Amino acid sequence: MKSRPRKQPPREATRSEKLWGGRFTRGADPLAERFTGSLAFDRRLWPHDVRGSVAWAKALAKAGLLSAAERDAIVKGLDVVRAELAAGTFPFRTELEDIHTNVERRLQELIGEVGGKLHTGRSRNDQIAVDERLYLREMVAEVRAGLRRTQEALVTRAAEAVDTPLPGYTHLQRAQPVVLGHHLLAYVFMLQRDCDRFGDCGARADTLPLGAAALAGTAFPIDLEALAKDLGFAEVSPNSLDAVSDRDTLLEFLAAAAITGMHLSRLAADLTLWATAEFGFVEFSDAFATGSSIMPQKKNPDVAELIRGKSGRLYGNLVAVLAMMKGLPLAYNSDMQEDKEPFFDSVDTLEAILAVVPPMIESLTFRTDRMRRAAGENFATATDLADYLVKKGVAFRHAHGLVGKIVRFCETEGKALDGLSLVELRRFSPLFQDDAKDALTVEASLRARAATGGTAPEAVRRSLALARTLIARA
Ligand code: ARG
After folding, report:
1. What distance, in Å, lies between the first and last C-alpha atoms of the chain?
2. Which atom of ligand 1 is nearest to the CA of 336?
3. What's the pLDDT at 5?
4. How far apart (Å, rounded) are the C-alpha atoms in residues 86 and 82?
5. Ligand 1 in reach of 101 Cβ (< 6 A)
6. What does the angle CA 148 – CA 150 – CA 156 come to, to the nearest 5 degrees?
7. Is 183 a catalytic residue?
8. Protein residue with its CA nearest to atom 3 in ligand 1
9. Which entry of 3, 95, 320, 433 is 20 to 30 Å from 83 by CA?
10. Measured in angstroms, how far is the CA atom of residue 212 from the centroid of ligand 1?
11. What's the CA-to-centroid distance between 334 and ligand 1, angstroms?
């Protein structure tokens, strides 16, 4: 038997390597160390952690707490740390709890004792708060760009389909004709609100938490206003307890992600339904579908199904952080370390969804012939017949009743509404004239709905123009 090299157990952090070694008589149990460590997930915050530290070092120097030479040594050292992290050569040490400790210890390795001055007047509590905020603002911009791309794809397809009749549904029963462009634009406006929600969340993240230190505020005369400016924040948090103990900005992001996921899930559900043999309104490109391992004929809309499915984790992540935060006494509590994995998972999930939706939409084939045919079936223009009578002076409620009877008559006779003769129609009301049949066409039904927000091609063109303006404004 070959002997395998024995797996090295992970190195434990020595007492002096911990950030708090002084007070402790022995090192942490490796189990406790592994349990409390967050490096596995918070390492993705390194660009923001280093950025915050560089700004903090400069602020310390301005306050006279670092000499110019010390500041330069720290900033240069952090430059090296950043370069190592970017190149993937940074010697991560899992036994050092988190990204903050890893960066600080590496800085000390690189520049010696003076590296130990960096943490003057701050805490990991305000450090993580500022890291998360810087990261969140970047993610807000990325998500908004993804939403824009999705809107553009939808607008392009909507523009091709302003005159394409489609059955509109309520209760998943055929209701009234709409145009396909109108249906697609509905999602564009939903996504516009999502985009605004992310924007609002980003705007509320415009407050600097650094300077709050552990909870009570920094004890050094740091020019926090200047530091805020340096890091791109509009203002300094007016309350240090709030600054380190709140996660509502992050929760807003998670809520906006959950709502966006819900919208895209509904789009995916529409398309999945439309792709069935029963509907037959759309065909997915082979590039955005998969086959079956057993049934050779199958083409499954997996991409759309997973867009729908992944909205579940977006909700779960929101609820996880809400539940984790509930009932936490002020100020910082370690529970809050549990905000990161759900947050990052929502970022990754949403970005994955937003990457796949635009090309999936671009590659759809709409079966407009089938939509058009279906749009006129199942008495879809019955409301228009009632409206016809209303225009002749009949009260709508009465007209509704009359047309209901006409529909019942059609059903027993096996006829469509437009298959009725004028004589037959006049049996129900003498107000019906030759033009009654014109009111029953899909085109007339669509054309009638020209008020703002309606499905008349003319109104849809106006909404399309509005959508384009909104998208371009971002
Ligand atoms: N890893 C911590 C977090 O994610 C950073 C702040 C730690 N502060 C502390 N006192 N343990 O929340």
Report:
1. 66
2. 12
3. 54
4. 6
5. no
6. 100
7. no
8. 337
9. 95
10. 14
11. 6
Map out the domains of the chain with their CATH numbers.
Answer: 36-121 (1.10.275.10), 125-172+179-216+227-373 (1.20.200.10), 377-473 (1.10.40.30)
Angle between helices 180-204 and 457-473 (to 10 degrees): 30
Q: For ligand 1, is residue 207 a contact (CB within 6 Å)?
A: no
Q: Which residue in this structure is represented by tokens 């009465």? A: 398
**One-letter amino acid of 226:** A
Write out the DSSP string of 304-331: HHHHHHHHHHHHHHHHHHHHHHTTPPSS
Residues 441, 70: Cα–Cα separation, whole Å: 81
- Centroid of chain to Cα 394: 49
Element (H, E) at 387: helix 382-391
Looking from the CA of residue 340, the nearest atom of ligand 1 is: 4
Q: Is the CB of 337 under 6 A from ligand 1?
A: yes
- Count of other CB atoms within 10 angstroms of residue 85: 20
Summarize pLDDT for 347-392 with one digit per residue, the tens.
999 999 999 999 999 999 999 999 999 999 999 999 999 999 999 9
For residue 177, the surrounding DSSP H or E stretch is strand 173-179
CB count within 10 Å of CB 109 equals 12
What pLDDT digit, counting tens, does each position of 300-358 carry? 999 999 999 999 999 999 999 999 999 999 999 999 999 999 999 999 999 999 999 99
Residues 198 and 326: their CA atoms lie apart, in Å, by 23
Which residues pair with residue 174 across a beta bridge? 169
CA of 229 to the centre of ligand 1 (A): 25
CA pair distance 190, 357, nearest whole angstrom: 15
- Enumerate residues 6+ apart whose C-beta is below 8 A from 325: 247, 251, 335, 336, 339
Q: What is the pTM (predicted TM-score) of this model?
A: 0.93
Q: Please state, in angstroms and rounded to a whole number, the distance separating the CA atoms of residues 227 and 205.
A: 15
